[in-house]
Amino acid sequence: MRRFLKGFAAFAAIVLLSCAAAAPAAAEQPEDNRLGRYIVVLDERADLLGSTLRRLQSMTGLKIGHVYDKGLRGYSATMPKGLVKKLLADPQVKYVEPDQKGTGNGQFFPWGINRVQADLSYTKAGNGSGTVTGVNAYVIDSGVAPHPDLNVVKRLNFTEEPDTDCHGHGTHISGTIAARDNTSGVVGVAPGIPITSLKVLDCETHGWYSDMIAAINWITANAKKPAVANMSIGGNPSKALDDAIRRSAASGVVYGLSAGNKSKSACEQSPARAGAGTNNGIITVAAIGSGDREASFSNYGPCVDLWAPGVDIKSTGNSGGIGPMSGTSMAAPHVTGAAALYLSRHRTVTPSSVESWLKRAAVSPGTKSKDGRTIRLVCVKAVT
After folding, report:
1. What range(s) does the Peptidase S8/S53 domain occupy (predicted)?
2. 329, 334, 344, 369: which is the annotated catalytic residue?
3. Rounded-to-integer distance, Cα 75 and Cα 214, Å
4. What is the pTM for the complete model shown?
5. Annotated catalytic, 181?
């Protein structure tokens, strides 16, 4: 699914570069020719596929990877570091940032489904008659393996890896969102809804931000509404990744994001910070464990919108069975599923309205987050 231009070369890994004030130049320095991976974001008026692209291709040493022509506009590229300054001098270039790697934030009722009261929602999950229709889920992750409990309708691969879920992360998340109510296996929050898998992570659940942006832009351009997307991935801050998600939510897609597993402020990670301070349909989710206490590993802070179960969550496995995982990765799909359940009954509402309803319907179990805020647990019992 990657859109490559002729001459694409092997990528070289880079680390996040900090900005420093420029010192007065005593003498002209040789151009830095070390290759790196970058994300170049263009002005909305840039003729992406015309003169702008031809001019960029003419630059010696620049190899273009993904072309972002929907949602976030720009491209990913491998190029010498010395070219970055030249690109920034172009009035059609808004900003350039290093590409980075993010990572996955790692028939009976799983305890999380019971705790968010999905078993008491209108689906009456567990009796074999609770299939949800009229809404679509998009899972940006490690892929989704074939599984009898999952209704996977499409698989897209934005990586150089085989299109399989060799880790199990994406398959597990998909089950929490939408495992079928078929009297066997497990049951998801929104049983049976169609899932589109967008693979951006490898077997170690690592993946490049440039691939993630390509997947997000695909959703922006192609999602069948009403739609929800889950992204249980986290890493260093990235304006480009955050901007891509904001544009996608503005197009009408509700996003469930994991807060991260570093036991620090979620505002220090992307994409967890993407919806900070707004009510825009981007919902960042922290994890609780036993006793409704915030999980020791869970990120916290003002960028967290809701909490959901994230410890020892049993769901669909990549070998066709069932297995447990823990992490805010497991918390986020409870909220994504809840959003899907709401949209299945209220198909014309905006992502902002979905987020508002989820926050109003949330309950307080009487516990506190690490920053002192009262935990607000997602609850879907009220969906009618």
Report:
1. 139-367
2. 329
3. 9
4. 0.84
5. no
